Amino acid sequence: MKALILVGGFGTRLRPLTFSMPKPLVDFGNKPMILHQIEALKAAGVTEVVLAINHQQPEVMLNFVKEYEKKLDMKITFSQETEPLGTAGPLALARDKLIDESGKPFFVLNSDVICEYPLLEMIQFHKNHGAEASIMVTKVEDPSKYGVVVMEKEEARVESFVEKPKHFVGDKINAGIYLLNPSVLDRIELRRTSIEKEIFPKIASEKKLYAMVLPGFWMDIGQPKDYLTGQRMYLNYLRKNAPGELLVTSGDGVIGNVMADETAVIGERCLIGPDVVIGAGCVIEPGVRLFGCTVMRGVRIKEHACVSDSIVGWDSTVGSWARVADVTVLGKDVQVADAEVLQMSAKPEIIQKV
Fold it and tell me: Potential cystine with 131: which of 210, 287, 324, 341 (Cβ 3.0-4.6 Å)?
């Protein structure tokens, strides 16, 4: 079975992290974002993954593929566009990589999505409904901010799509995970095309599109505030389902869900949590306060500093008694001076090395 992951975006909403690293390789839960998806695909029986990338993504993506092809015993290849092709065009470009004599359906995932990935259940759903295309949908409290998927109640068949409705028409939105028969590729031209706005509505009009409601949590983590919200959901999921497997820790000085790499060094009298991720090789000096934040690989947080609701990029240093707060994002190798205060006013503050 095969899958394609759409990773062609430029990651502008996660700058300055994406100045140093392609968005799919930015850490989430102490491993690259895209690795969460690749591991879930392998668990569902996928043996070949195609990464649909843009023309500007660097060599580091190739190095990632070489490393994880071997570790996961999967075939991982690139399909590289030379001009923007939207969310459907990359499927046409990768057609020869996705189709084989088996005729099996293939997965398509948006790389920003974090969830429980019930992919085996989706395969069964697709078979049971005889769908040409199946999509996952998730329930939201305020559907007016999204494109809503209107479903036939009894059969889970998609009737239509309504973009940012002014009146209530439903509370399910596209979750960015699809299972498609090879015939869907015949509907897509090699040009800039939207699968959500052009391809799926046509399939729905022919009564061949079905929607599976995603159980559990879901978040598009492509911007800082949602990244941190997704992290909280992910850690809560691990606490309930795999508390030991991924180093979710608890003990003196730890509140709630905290993930710390085994190589991180944490000093005395620290108060950490809830909802904190600490990466490999980090040094957290005595008296530090961390909550609702990510501290990426190689970071040093000096004595009595406080980091809250923020992201500290790789190899950065936060000085003694400094404060980083309110969805501030530090890029790679940023130096925050002793007693300096960085916090958001109206927009997330992004700091990069100059």
Answer: 210
Query: Cβ(289)–Cβ(271) under 8 Å?
Result: yes
C-alpha to C-alpha distance for 326 and 349, rounded to whole angstroms: 8
Cβ-based neighbour number of residue 7 at 10 Å: 25
DSSP-derived 3-state class of residue 318: strand
Angle (nearest 5°) at CA 116 between 291 and 230: 30
The answer to whether residues 207 and 239 belong to one domain is no
* Best CA proximity match to 138, nearest among 230, 209, 217: 217
What the block records as the tokens of 3 is 């899958």
CA distance 190 to 173: 26
Does 130 fall in a domain? Answer: yes
Phi, psi values for residue 92, rounded to 5°: -65, -40
Structural domain of residue 265, as residue ranges?
Answer: 224-343
For the domain that residue 204 is a member of, what is the CATH number?
Answer: 3.90.550.10
Distance CA 44, CA 118 (A): 8
Cβ neighbour number for residue 234 with a 10 Å cutoff = 24
Could you give the percent of the chain with pLDDT greater than 90? Answer: 62
Query: At which of 202, 220, 238 does a domain end?
Result: 220
42 and 135 together in one domain: yes
How far apart are alpha carbons 6 and 14 in whole angstroms?
17
Residue 140 C-alpha from the chain's centroid:
18
Q: Looking at residue 265, which CATH number applies to its domain? A: 2.160.10
pLDDT tens figures, 283-341: 999 999 999 999 999 999 999 999 999 999 999 999 999 999 999 999 999 999 999 99
